[in-house]
Amino acid sequence: MRVRYRSKVAGPGPSEAVVTVKTTQGTEEVIVHSSDIEDDTIEVGRVGEQDGVFLVELPQESASGKWRLWVPSSEVA
Q: pTM for the whole thing?
């Protein structure tokens, strides 16, 4: 499953980027490997769905320490 990201900046490593993902609670920043990025989206794992909102698992822990996020269906590609 792919989720859109809002912004991207260079990450701490040469093949990493920091992206911002829109969630139902605001935004989250997560460091991702460049191979996970494609067409303004990142690869995530689908955990569940409820009322048009998806629970996804990130490829790495977010800056706030979360591994799973609720994202609106409008953010799913």
A: 0.89
